[in-house]
Design goal:
Length: 321
Amino acid sequence: MGCQDEQLVQTICDLYEKISKLESLKPSEDVNILFKQLVSTCIPPNPNIDVTKMCGTVQDIRLNLIKICGEAEGHLEHHFSSILTSLQDNPLNHLNIFPYYNNYLKLGKLEFDLLTQNLNGFVPKSVAFVGSGPLPLTSIVLASFHLKDTIFHNFDIDPSANSLASLLVSSDPDISQRMFFHTVDIMDVTESLKSFDVVFLAALVGMNKEEKVKVIEHLQRHMAPGAVLMVRSAHGPRAFLYPIVEPCDLQGFEVLSIYHPTDDVINSVVISKKLAVVSTANVGGPLCLIKPCNCSKIHAIMNKKKNMMIEEFGAREEQLS
C-alpha cells in the first residue's frame, strides 16, 4: 500500500477506537457524527485496499468494527421503524425520513436489474429475504416498485424486529397482503426454502467468514435447483463495514455476476444460481462454478451512469432454466 492507503486504514482504525469507547450505539449526536465519518471514509472506491491481506491487528479491528456496525445499524433501523409505526398515516408514505432510504432505492433498482438480466425476463413469484430486520426496506422497495405481484417472506431471528416490521406494512392495502414475517433462525428452516424462486441474504447475516459460509451451505442444501441466491458483499475499504463474500464461498452455486457499486450504495451484490446437479468429486464438497468469460478473464465495466463496477462472468451457451 502507498502512503495515502496506509493513512486511510489508520483513519479507519482511529475511528474504530473512538466508536468502541461510546457508551451506547443507539442514535445520538456523537454516534451519528462518528458513523457518518466512518462511512464517508470507507465509501470512496480504492482498488489498492485488500482487507484480506492486512496484518492481524487490522484484521481484528475490522471484524470488531463489522460487529459494531451491525449493532448500530440495528439500533438505527429500530429507532426509525418505531417513529414510522407511530404515525397515523400509512408509514410507507414517509420512508424518506430514514437517512439511507435513497440508498435502498438505488440498491433495489440495481438488484432488480440484475435479476431481470440473469433470469431472462422471468418474474419471481415468491422471494425470501433472510435477515430483514425492523425496517425491511429491500423487500418494501422491490414489492412497491419492481416486483408488484410477488410474495415476500421475511425471516429474522429477532421477534421485536418482526413485530415492528409487520406493523410498518400493516396499513398498506397492497404490501400487507404480499409481505409475511417469520421469527426463526434460518438454520432451522429447511423444506420451505424450496418454494422460493429467489433468496436474498442480508449483509450482516453471518458476521464473519465461517458464519457466512455456514448459512450459505445451509441454503444450498435446501433451496430448489435453479433458484437464485442474492448475497450482499463488500469491496475495498467498504469491507471494513460489511463481510466479504467470494465466489469460492458459494459451493453448489453458479456465480453469474458480481456488482461493485462506486457511488453511495455501499454493498456489493453477488448473484448466483443453485446448480441442478452438484458434483463433489475431488473437491471434498459441492462444486462452485463461475460463468466462463468469453475472453477468459473478468471484465470491469462501468455502467452508463459511471457509478458501478461490474464483474461479469460472460455468457455461456446454455440459458438459465
